[in-house]
Design a protein that fits this description.
Shape: rod-shaped
Order of helices and strands: HHH
Keywords: Coiled coil, Membrane, Transmembrane, Transmembrane helix
Number of helices: 3
Largest sheet: none
Structural class: mainly alpha
Distance between the termini: 170 Å
Radius of gyration: 58 Å
Oligomer: single chain
Strand content: under 5%
């Protein structure tokens, strides 16, 4: 049994040693990869800082808006509206009338009341004119 145990230990020892070597190699690769990743990260940060500097120094000016098309469209629309309004029917004449007697009411009482007020108003006006003339001569 002792013969069998030693070879087994050696195989196990070889396996363990190979595993240790592989782990060491993997750790070395991992450390180099970490260093490479840190170097890339530093480069990326440097590029970002450089890009931010370029962007901060950049001034963007928008061109002045061209409103000529909008103005032309508005003028055309207003011209069309004016033309359509000119096509509407127009009143033939304007007439201003003073009616003593309304066209709807032609009753005798209404006519009598209007005529009475007109006659009394004209008599009162004549009386005021004569009174003014008499007082004007008397005051002078």
């Amino acid at each position: 049994m002792s013969n069998q145990q030693t070879p087994e230990k050696t195989v196990i020892d070889e396996v363990v040693e190979s595993l240790i070597k592989k782990t060491e190699l993997l750790e070395k690769e991992l450390s180099t990869m970490k260093e490479a990743l840190l170097a890339k990260e530093e480069q990326t940060q440097a590029l970002l800082i450089d890009f931010e500097k370029k962007i901060s120094n950049m001034v963007i000016q928008a061109p002045a808006p061209d409103l000529s098309e909008v103005n032309a469209t508005l003028k055309n629309g207003l011209a069309i509206m004016n033309q359509s309004m000119e096509k509407w029917p127009k009143p033939l004449k304007k007439e201003y009338r003073f009616l003593f007697f309304s066209e709807q009411l032609r009753s005798v009482e209404y006519v009598r009341a209007v005529l009475t007020r007109i006659i009394l108003g004209s008599i009162g006006l004549v009386f005021l004119i004569f009174a003014y003339l008499l007082m004007d001569k008397h005051i002078q």
